[in-house]
Write a structure and sequence with these properties.
The structure is a homodimer of 243-residue chains. Chain A has 243 residues and is of the alpha+beta class. Helix content of chain A is 39%, strand content 21%. In chain A, helix 2 packs across helix 3, helix 4 packs across helix 7 and helix 5 packs across helix 6. The first copy, chain A, is globular, with a radius of gyration of 18 Å. Chain A binds a DNA duplex (30 and 30 nucleotides) through helix 6.
Chain lengths: 243, 243
DNA sequence: CGCTGTGTTGACAGGTCTCAATATAAGTGG
DNA sequence: CCACTTATATTGAGACCTGTCAACACAGCG
């Protein structure tokens, strides 16, 4: 890959040629992970972060009771593992849930961005704030809504993100999350996820075909999810000007 | 104030004199907010962010059902409202819950940091990642633990943060949150917060005196909260070097 | 063909919410 | 300073949501 791949930074800035070059140099050679493989485990030393080029990766923190909370379902273009940059030991276990392609980013190179490419650094900052807003919305969903709404919220959230990656995204798509994983993301048990899903199916809102899912009534699902609509601020004025 | 005040950036870097000067210039003249006053409301245009110099401020997102989720309890030294920097309309309502002193930061000046003070920008980046980790831990608490544990987690979290501000912090302190607000933070109703509190009191773990609270058995509370211990990475190697 | 992971279902227990009423504290205007 | 209003805390009873435990079905895979 000579051209650096999709990256969620692009939601916030457009790159100059020089910046594009810097991004290309940021990432190491892509490598592949099999489904189920762990990229980094809770407690590991933090030596690097990653860019997800292809596939799905989940990020989970362990609970002391032996359970786990999935804090993020990563799609291509996501930076992986960056919350742990501020910690001595990694907070999150990163697990591929499909075959995934990943590239490393050394922390050193990442730090250099702040000197060499201020606008890229600012975009990184924005990208983290964006994740923070998404977490705020998810706490609201988990803390304040019932199972059916939480499941809808997850489905709609993922559907919307897939549409960003692929504007002509069909309402039927691969959802490689097991019900156990959805439960771990939403704070529900497998059993209850299952019942909730059948309820949604019975209500004609969705259907499943193996790992595929189809959303029959996106507007109604969206209403049920009651997620706030977030309009991201692209190219804000306060960003440093292009060199 | 010629000297800029405490700031959580200092958890991650030490400032050069020049950087300290830049920080001093970053903030406008401090002003006071009465208890209950709103600094910014959901949906407002985002023109600035704020530094909390004194007092307590809560940050809440509204739910479509008319409820609200408190996403952060801010203490002195916190930056307020920065998640909304990436949005066209503010995501959060900022409300003073004690008399509070606040200073404005214009977005323009904030953006200039990325060019003029890369290390400060990097520290801001880290500070946001830190908030993200805290939100990850809170989702885990809300999604995966019972009421008693959630309340313990809130108390321990606040206690720990007060101790950072004041290392000799006593185990008795002012907690200016109503039970309704705690409920909104933890995803519980007022009624249940109340019952849970009486349970903790009956168990000899805490006691309340008006708005004061006393933690009798911090280690046991901490165990009950089952929060992960986060060791923050101070002065990481990958930070840009001091000029 | 047997394993193992995943999905499904039922019965029951337990946690939390809802509704409603009351008590107490805090704030306000006279 | 008192009377009144409002905010906050407290308590009980019952309904509802979700968890727990356990069994079974089904699929993919070696």
């Amino acid at each position: 890959l000579t051209q650096f791949p999709i990256h969620r930074l692009l939601e916030f800035i457009d790159l100059t040629d020089a910046e594009r070059q810097i991004m290309d140099d940021l990432y190491g050679a892509p490598f592949e992970l099999e489904r189920g493989r762990v990229l980094r485990r809770v407690g590991d030393e933090v030596q690097e972060v990653y860019l997800l080029l292809d596939g799905w990766v989940i990020s989970a923190v362990g609970t002391s009771a032996g359970g786990r909370q999935i804090v993020k379902v990563h799609l291509p273009g996501d930076m992986l593992g960056s919350p742990s940059m501020v910690l001595k030991k990694a907070a999150e276990t990163l697990t591929a849930i499909t075959t995934a392609t990943v590239a490393r980013v050394s922390l050193k190179k990442f730090g250099d961005l702040f000197v060499e490419a201020p606008r890229l650094a600012a975009a990184m900052f924005m990208s983290v704030q964006q994740e923070r807003v998404l977490l705020m919305d998810r706490i609201t969903s988990v803390g304040r809504t019932r199972a059916a709404q939480r499941v809808s919220a997850l489905l709609i959230h993922i559907y919307d993100r897939l549409r960003v990656l692929q504007p002509d995204q069909a309402s039927r798509f691969l959802l490689p999350l097991t019900q156990e994983q959805m439960g771990d993301a939403l704070g529900l048990t497998t059993v209850h996820i299952n019942r909730t899903f059948r309820e949604l199916i019975a209500g004609g809102l969705v259907q499943r075909y193996g790992q595929d899912i189809e959303l029959f009534d996106v507007p109604r699902l969206r209403r049920m999810a009651s997620l706030p609509e977030r309009e991201w601020q692209r190219y804000p004025e306060w960003l440093p000007k292009r060199a």
